[in-house]
Amino acid sequence: GDVCAGLGLANDEPLDGALLDVNLGGDYIYPIADALVARGVPWMFVMGYDGWSLPEAYRQARVITKPFSMAVVVDSIARLLANGPRR
Length: 87
What we know:
By secondary structure, the protein is α/β, with parallel strands linked by helices.
């Protein structure tokens, strides 16, 4: 629900992968993405923005754009876990 809790999970929990909503209550989750990269955990953004709105350092990240279907989410997660980290 918030960046602080997300950082705790990103740093301390065993994770196979993560979907990150770019904006959590007005706070951006880039520190969570960075923590996942440092651990080698694959992740992707979920957002309702265009890719151009991302900071340059994150523009190559995988993205699921809202609105999305469950089929898109399932397919995206399967590809994320099959391909591993990318940034």
